Amino acid sequence: MSYRFRDFGSYTVGGRTVEVRGQPTERIQFTPTTAYERDPNGTHVVEQAYVQYFVPEQRRNSDPPVLLVHGGGMTGAMWETTPDGRPGWLHLLLDRGHEVHVVDNVERGRAGWHPGLWDGEPVVRTLEEAWTLFRIGPASGFATRTPFAGQRFPAVHFDGFCRSFVPRWVSTLPAQARAFGAVLKKLGTAHVICHSQGAQVVFAAAAEHAQNIQRVTALEPSGLPHPETKRTSLDVDLVVGDWIDIDEFWRDMIHRCRAYTNSGVDRVTWFDLAQHGLPRHSHMMMMDEGSAEILSLLLD
């Protein structure tokens, strides 16, 4: 990768304040040599999104910023580098001259979180679940890390990839949609590339901010628009990989994606990667060998 930056940095946007009252003070030892009496009561800032942005010197001024949205249990770091050290989509987009904004949404990564704020306990993904859910290989191949034949995910680096997992709540969609809507409003317009659960956040935010979205590229979205949501139609690329028929979960998900594609809610272009000469890709297609070719297909 060879590019110079016109600008780069970060910002937080959205969120709200909450008042905590009636909690006891406590003496905490926050370093081995220093302690103090902590009072948790007062005003806290919560539910903001953290966004890191990059503007290449040779920016494509005719194009809006590209906004990268992570999936469930992930952060914006998923777009940076592949598990085997190749440039991630962030770098590939910058190399093409795109301005890129990378989101850590509510309760993920550098957006932070507040204890007791959301319903339920956080969900933490196991390696075994990731192996099968992300379609790296069959359950029987997990112990030996033997992937599907021809699998393009760099399975030898699977354990390193799993170090990027973070806890997530399943009750935070409204807060995530509000924060993401604030990001869209700040940018004015954007080409949104989202993955898995991140698509649900995008579609939920579009209920009020469809005018700020030039296009949505949804990589195997696990969340889809509600058919009764009234808003301006979106231009959507819906992208799917291989081994979709391995279990009922994926068959049902792709069935829902097909129904959405044909519903007329949005203007959807269906991208089955295998039918475009890019077979054997996993749910983590932006990390697979061939990820650069996938991005080129979607941009060109």
What does this 3D model show about the protein?
It is built from seven helices and ten strands. The chain is of the alpha/beta class. It has a single domain, classed as Alpha/Beta hydrolase fold, catalytic domain (Rossmann fold, 3-Layer(aba) Sandwich), CATH 3.40.50.1820. The strands form two sheets. The protein has an eight-stranded mixed sheet, with helices on both faces. Helix 5 links the parallel strand 7 (190-195) and strand 8. Helix 4 (173-187) crosses helix 5 (197-209). The longest helix has 15 residues, at 173-187. It is globular, with a radius of gyration of 20 Å.
Task: List the topology elements.
Blueprint lengths: L4 E16 L5 E6 L2 E5 L3 E15 L9 E4 L19 H7 L4 E5 L22 H7 L24 H5 L10 H15 L2 E6 L1 H13 L3 E7 L15 E6 L7 H14 L5 E6 L18 H9 L1
Parallel strand pairs: 5-6, 5-7, 7-8, 8-9, 9-10
Antiparallel strand pairs: 1-4, 2-3, 4-6
Helix pairs in contact: 4-5
